[in-house]
């Protein structure tokens, strides 16, 4: 009992897609589509400092030390799976449940996991539900991702907590006047590829793992190394790597971001685990356009 403590539990299921057929090809396609969704879920958990408790055929569960991490992971995986291509005209989606409470020893799921499982089962495809116990722990920067949700017409047992739906709300993305909207995009260049961070794509992930938006091949980069987010105050670089993220802007002195975040002013270049002064094909260049 001494090892039990309060954690934030996240349970995610993959749902939807076309009906399976009896052919080997159809079964393999279906499995690959499920695995693509699960991989996006894994990336979101790792990027927000979650600890996976294991994977089933159609789902994943994880624990987080901080409720903010679980909420951000849920928002991120909802967005990333929503953008996956359909299979035979039918899209897969995820449903998630989040609860803060007592968990078991080590990687054993506990009470919080069981409540999160009930919420995930009650959630609709493309939806994440969280209890008031989670929302009470959120920072001001994350709390606006949760909105009160009615439990009517949901197959939920009597719970001791009000329920909230979790998603990036429309006002969480920078809103600017139409005349200046074109100035509020960040252009990223990496090995000939160009990515725009804007209203349509407010988050870009960097890392060595395939599945990131910008894949860094240099072995000094972490599998999930960093990300850039579009926020109300501008574009923010967030590092969660082992070796740090090196940044130089407007030819100023290079600085290292490690386990923290910084506002990007641009133009500049980014080294994922290595100095921006190196002649390195994996350098990332950015500018506000």
Overview of the structural elements:
It is a single chain. This protein has 289 residues and is of the alpha+beta class. The protein starts with a strand and ends with a strand. The protein contains 5 helices and 18 strands. It is globular, with a radius of gyration of 20 Å. About 4% of the residues have low confidence. The protein is 21% helix and 35% strand. The strands form 3 sheets. A 7-stranded mixed β-sheet has the order 2-3-1-4-5-7-6. The protein has a 6-stranded antiparallel β-sheet with strand order 9-8-18-17-14-15, with no helix packed on it. A 5-stranded mixed β-sheet has the order 11-10-12-13-16, with no helix packed on it. The protein folds into 2 domains: 165 residues, 2-Layer Sandwich (Alpha-Beta Plaits); 111 residues, Tumour Suppressor Smad4, CATH 2.60.200.20. Helix 1 runs antiparallel to helix 2.
State Rg.
20 Å
Helix and strand pattern: EHEEHEHEHHEEEEEEEEEEEEE
The strand order across the widest sheet is 2-3-1-4-5-7-6
Give the low-pLDDT segments: 171-182
- What would the principal axes of the Cα set say about the shape? globular
Structural class: alpha+beta
Topology overview:
Blueprint: E1 5-16, H1 24-47, E2 50-55, E3 59-64, H2 67-82, E4 92-103, H3 111-122, E5 127-131, H4 132-135, H5 140-143, E6 146-149, E7 163-166, E8 186-190, E9 193-197, E10 203-207, E11 214-215, E12 226-231, E13 234-239, E14 245-249, E15 255-257, E16 261-264, E17 268-272, E18 284-288
Parallel strand pairs: 4-5, 10-11
Antiparallel strand pairs: 1-3, 1-4, 2-3, 5-7, 6-7, 8-9, 8-18, 10-12, 12-13, 13-16, 14-15, 14-17, 17-18
Helix pairs in contact: 1-2
Protein name: FHA domain-containing protein
InterPro entries: Cell_Proc_Reg/RNA_Proc (IPR050923), FHA_dom (IPR000253), Nucleotide_cyclase (IPR029787), SMAD_FHA_dom_sf (IPR008984)
Domain FHA: 204-247
